[in-house]
Amino acid sequence: MLRALLLALAKSSRLRRWITSNGTTRRMAHRFVPGEELAAAIEAARACNRAGMTVSLDHLGENVVTREDAERARASYTDALDRIAADGVEGNLSLKLTHLGLDLGGEFCAEQLRIVTLRAQESGNFVRVDMEGSAYTDRTLRIVKQARAETAAVGTVIQSYLYRSEDDIRELLGIDCRIRLVKGAYKEPSRIAFRRKKDVDANFIKLMKILLPSGIYHALATHDPNMIEAAIRFAAEQNITKDKFEFQMLYGIRTDLQSRLVRQGYRVRVYIPFGKDWFPYFMRRLAERPANLLFFAKNFLRGSARK
Ligand SMILES: Cc1cc2nc3c(=O)[nH]c(=O)nc-3n(C[C@H](O)[C@H](O)[C@H](O)COP(=O)(O)OP(=O)(O)OC[C@H]3O[C@@H](n4cnc5c(N)ncnc54)[C@H](O)[C@@H]3O)c2cc1C
């Protein structure tokens, strides 16, 4: 119930204005988003690299409504790739197709993605296309497949809460596409998605067991110790070595688990978001864990009382 409410509120422009203009909430968002500028993300990336982790930078933004905004987003991604290369950061890029204009037309968006992926290819880097709500799944997969036909510097994300995901994975494996497996962060109806955590988790493990033996370098993006344990056990049973896949986690979440995995010799990549448009990302993080909402409310009241 609470999750559904927070995900619905993530679309409220009034709440967005209030939260993003309030000093206390802006400071609190720093727990999940290190800053609004690329420089802040690079600084956070350097710290992760020093701690033995790679990163994926994401310039936050989604559902742009003009071509100019989509082109600006595309330029910010090619700039980020250049900066990663120039600064020797161990990291790649994540992006959302609605930030590159998917709502304005598939062909236009595919062309923006093409420019970014070709720049990534030139610098020996990689672009991960995030998966958004189910209204975009077919279009995202179509554009990713088209891009993958041109370059190996692109991969995408599959959500274990969707019933269709096993079929999608088999198709993507057929074109050697790298996949990040997640549980899924959006509000989806039971017609197309598992609603109970137990079912989403069972499907995550089932899909993980298809991905890891495929011989392609995939990512398991979760903070769930049970999913991580299941993957470690399965990889050991199948003699899949630690360099054949990676774990991914979000900036600021379960940093203890991130460090533990690094100490155990696993590859860990931290997803680092940056940018001014952090409100929907922030709301999805609150929705994932009621304790975050409590933490947010307590700090907000404390911050307001100090004023
Ligand atoms: C690198 C990365 C990229 C992602 N990309 C996408 C994407 O493209 N599309 C998409 O739909 N989703 C994406 N997600 C989000 C994902 O779908 C889940 O919503 C999110 O990871 C929470 O699920 P979980 O697997 O961590 O397990 P859960 O069952 O939600 O949580 C397990 C445990 O993890 C910890 N935890 C989880 N979330 C939080 C949090 N917000 N704050 C503090 N602790 C937490 C808690 O200890 C919790 O008990 C991504 C996640 C990661 C890590």
Task: Describe the protein in words.
This protein has an eight-stranded parallel β-barrel with strand order 1-2-3-4-5-6-7-8, surrounded by seven helices. It has 13 helices and eight strands. The chain has helices at residues 2-9, 13-21, 23-29, 38-50, 67-87, 106-122, 137-150, 165-174, 197-211, 225-237, 255-263, 279-288, 290-306; strands at 54-59, 91-95, 127-129, 154-159, 178-182, 218-221, 245-250, 268-274. The model has no long low-confidence stretch (mean pLDDT 93). It is 53% helix and 14% strand. The protein has 307 residues and is an alpha/beta fold. The structure holds flavin-adenine dinucleotide. Flavin-adenine dinucleotide binds next to β4, β7 and α12.
Distance between the termini: 33 Å
Ligand species: flavin-adenine dinucleotide
Shape: globular
Order of secondary-structure elements: HHHHEHEHEHEHEHEHEHEHH
Major beta sheet, strand line-up: 1-2-3-4-5-6-7-8
Radius of gyration: 19 Å
Instruction: Quickly give the structural class.
Output: alpha/beta
- Mean pLDDT equals 93
- Describe the largest sheet: 8 strands, parallel, barrel
**Contiguous runs where pLDDT drops below 50 for at least 5 residues:** none
User: How many helical stretches?
Assistant: 13
Question: Considering DSSP H and I runs of 4 or more, what fraction of the residues is helical?
Answer: 40-55%
- Count of β-strands: 8
What is the beta-strand fraction? 5-15%
